[in-house]
Write a structure and sequence with these properties.
By secondary structure, the chain is α/β, with parallel strands linked by helices. It contains eight helices and eight strands. The protein has helices at about 75-95, 130-135, 140-150, 160-175, 195-210, 215-225, 230-235, 240-250, and strands at about 1-5, 10-15, 35, 55-60, 65-70, 105-110, 115-120, 125. It has a five-stranded mixed β-sheet, with helices on one face. Strands 2-1-3 form a three-stranded antiparallel β-sheet, with no helix packed on it. The chain is globular and about 55 Å long.
Length: about 250
Amino acid sequence: MNFILKYAGGHKLLINKLKRVVAFTGFNMLLLLCVVKTDAQKDWNNIDRQGMISLDTFFRKDYTLEFFNKDEFLNDSLKQRLVETFFKVYPEEADEYNKETTKKVVFFMDPGYKGVAATSGNIVRFNPQWFHNHPGDIDVVTHEVMHIVQSYPGNAGPGWLTEGIADYVRYTLGVDNAGAHWSLPDFSPKQHYENAYRITARFLAWLEKNKLQGIVRQLDAAMRTKKYDPGIWKKLTGKSVDELWRDYAENPAI
């Protein structure tokens, strides 16, 4: 039997005939779920067109968006919001973080995918049911296409930072976080910078404001070029990440 090992942000490792737990290095796997691999996801980069309801291609300036849809209930209004969000935020993310990112992106509304959304290569798969239940959460797009901009190679650095950066970008560039009732959480002593997503994003926002403007850009570039190591925090700020977290905990206002 085939399995997907899924950790924070939708990145996946396929293990055939999983018989034992093995040690992973590189990305810290914050959330590890073992789910039976479905036929629809045998090859993430191969979109099965059987049952496809629509395929549209949109062009704006240098960017192309292909939109595959297998959801018969997808309405035109939501589809247009997804498209408009892409063409607003993706060029901004590219300009800010990685001007060499791909100019062609694929969106796939895939009822066979049971998460919220996930990205591999230049393909973003969305669970249409999520949007039926949460039609205001349009900035899922902002988070997911940032993963395309990131394009980190294997073993580039910790997964918590990958997801923290993506949520930091949602926080700074999102088009309607308020409409999704999405915000960065208040600080709690129970938190840790390795909690990823919004908790790490808030820490990054604090660092930008209080320690070093542009630190997120530098961390992102280090991850993409495989120059990240735990010492980078002290190199950039004069303090280790643990020391920075202690400073943050003492005065977490952003």
